[in-house]
Design a protein that fits this description.
Elements lengths: L4 E5 L4 H5 L9 E6 L4 E6 L7 H8 L8 E5 L5 H9 L4 E6 L2 H13 L4 E5 L6 H6 L7 E6 L15 H7 L5 H12 E12 L3 H8 L3 E10 L6 E10 L6 E2 L3 E2 L9 H7 L11
Parallel strand pairs: 4-5, 4-7, 5-6, 7-8, 9-11, 9-12
Antiparallel strand pairs: 1-6, 2-3, 8-10, 9-10
Length: about 280
């Protein structure tokens, strides 16, 4: 059994947390997100947070008082971005890599965001989740950015952390969705991001136990196929699936989409976040 380690970060302990030893991994950079509202320390190489995490956060339908679980949180970018947008959530960051989990803990403290950090393999069994305080029917919202690159078309990185964070196996998505279904309460909300050409995999994984799907395709520009899909699903939902108008990261002229830039700067949310 994989042992889970859980620790809670309280905003009042930010100075003490910041003084703790950082992971002895590669060089660390400090980067601004949400227009500088969120400062995150992360490895200079390997798996780094970017637009995917912030778009996922902007699509997460959380409300104040919700228990929100970020599966595979990395350094905490998506979950902490949700907490910055929606005050008063009970945030849990779940990450398998101890170094990234330590960065997530310090990032939460440095940004004065209260969060529980759990070191746990998302594909661990139910008993490991119970031990970590993530029992069945205990979460209101789950968000996740699982590894989604197709191994048959993507050369795996020699960096083990990067490979684990980016390359999916044949069972990755189904396993992560199964965990979300188990820990969510009835009518709980799931938000996820996946590569657009894998939409059939997403629909298949959500077919058992989820409904009321809302799908938002993300395009680099209007002339190219979608590169990502953002999906919101409801545990036990029965409403018909809705396909939203495409989100264009850049206009046809190549200029960044102004509304998307506002969302990335923390000045707005995506339609999937409204409930």
């Amino acid at each position: 059994m994989i042992k889970a380690f859980s620790s809670e970060v309280d905003p009042g302990s930010r100075e003490e947390s910041a003084s703790k030893k950082q992971p002895a991994a590669a060089e660390i950079t400090e980067d601004g997100f949400l227009g500088g509202q969120l400062r995150l320390r992360q490895p200079k190489s390997g798996h780094r947070a970017g637009h995917d995490a912030i778009l996922l956060a902007a699509a997460t339908p959380a409300r104040s008082g919700d228990r929100v679980v970020d599966l595979g949180s990395g350094v905490g970018a998506a979950g902490l971005a949700v907490a910055r947008r929606v005050r008063g959530i009970d945030l849990v960051l779940v990450e398998i890599d101890p170094d990234l989990a330590e960065l997530a803990r310090n990032n939460a403290a440095a940004n004065a965001i209260k969060a529980e950090v759990v070191i746990l393999d998302v594909e661990a069994g139910a008993a490991a989740f119970d031990d970590a305080g993530l029992a069945p029917d205990s979460a209101d919202v789950v968000l996740m950015n699982p590894p989604f690159n197709d191994p048959s078309r993507h050369r795996a990185s020699p960096d083990g952390v990067r490979q684990r964070a980016h390359v999916a196996t044949a069972t990755t998505l189904a396993a992560w969705v199964h965990v979300a279904r188990r820990i969510l309460r009835s009518n709980g909300q799931l938000a996820l991001i996946w590569r657009a050409d894998g939409i059939a995999e997403v629909l298949a994984a959500l077919d058992r136990g989820f409904g009321s799907l809302e799908i938002l395709p993300v395009h680099g520009d209007a002339t190219a196929p979608a590169i990502r899909i953002l999906v919101r699903a409801v545990k036990g939902g029965r409403a018909p699936t809705r396909l939203h108008a495409a989100l264009l990261l850049n206009e046809e002229s190549g200029v960044p989409n102004k509304w998307v830039q506002e969302v990335l700067a923390g000045k707005g949310e995506l339609p999937l976040a409204r409930r």
